[in-house]
Amino acid sequence: MEFKLILGYRCNLKCSYCYQLKEHCNDKEMSYEIIDTFLERYNKLEGSHTINFFGGEPLLYADKIKYIMDRVDKDRTCLSISTNGSLRGTFYELQEYWGRSIGNLLSNKEHGDFTKLNEESSFRYVVTKENIDELTESRITFLANHYKEKLQFKYDMSSKWELEHIQKMEHVQRILQGVLGGDFYIEMPVDYNSKFVCFVSGTNCFINYNGDYLACHRNPNSKLGNIMKEDFICCKNEYCLDRCTNRPENLYSYGKYEFKGVTLFHSCD
């Protein structure tokens, strides 16, 4: 099972496409009472599990990450962090403290450093109409050589895309295939199904900073219960909550290119 702990919503960056911008002003964070309750239940589980630290920017909560590190069994716990990659010194401090490699998901942020944190790094490039021209051949080739198959593309479809944007991403895919082989494909901003299957359902437990169990870690209002009152509750979504709300302005097509009401660029980590 994977436990995603949203330690708080503070972030040191203000990326224009971030769906959490409104939450960044929320300075509340997960209390030690909630963390201790999580640890008490977690340490009673059998088998191996993953704890993913999420935010905001989780590296702003390094002391609480260390607190958790001190109280779990390393031999049956994998750690990962979804980070903007700007606080590299803090990441390496935590990794040294843990004594083992820490998984991590990076993305294209304004600081512009797209290099790996370690060999477990994955990279998600969030493409918007405003930044698509930054996908130069040299940048695409660098990402392909640096991350190999651990590279993915997601799209901000909150405004109407033009045919030229779609064709640009087809060009990006051709460059990637030139480096990684013809069998490498990226998710394209076309033919999205507005009721995308939730592929983490039943395997993930999302815990918000206030102890709420969430049906989706990207929706703080999707409360299923609270850790102070109930045992672990996994999400059980049939469809992705973020993809199932159609927006009429996104229902359009350019011949073979069909858009089906996708509202946000992301899918689950």
UniProtKB/TrEMBL annotation:
Segments forming domain Radical SAM core: 6-96
Lineage of origin: Bacteria, Fusobacteriati, Fusobacteriota, Fusobacteriia, Fusobacteriales
Name used for this protein in its record: Radical SAM domain protein
Native source organism of the sequence: Fusobacterium gonidiaformans 3-1-5R
InterPro entries, per database record: Aldolase_TIM, Radical_SAM_PqqE_MftC-like, rSAM, rSAM_sf
GO molecular-function term, one example from the UniProt record: catalytic activity
Key words of the record: Iron, Iron-sulfur, Metal-binding, S-adenosyl-L-methionine
